Amino acid sequence: MKKQFVIDVAVILLLIMFLYASFSKLFDFAAFQRAMHKQPFPHWFASLLTFLIPAIEIGVCIFLYREKTRKNGLWAAAVLMLLFTVYVAAILLHLFKKVPCSCGGVISRLDWGEHLEFNVCFLLLAGIGLILQYKVENKIGG
Fold it and tell me: What residue range is the signal peptide (predicted)?
């Protein structure tokens, strides 16, 4: 019962974060689009990501919300957070020139170190949820 509670809390927090992130991008799409085109990507890739990132974030939410697809949603959340975290780490390692944050809402107010901490926390949350989901499904560890 405790495992399921932790899974539910992880899923709720991930849902809130991804819904907030995606809708804040969509509500100020022009600013998000401008920020994406300032990223160290080719123009065509930035244009593609401008549409893909919010769509993927919403898709992750749908997977997380539905119990039948929750495990896939946790996997998708973990992979997406891992990609975002590696990107922020690359920025902190100065692998790119100055990079503007393309996040929306209050998340865009974080500095890159805070961004890394935020991402690592949600990456761990997705990982913990995923591990516990496997344990619950396979009835491992009472």
Answer: none
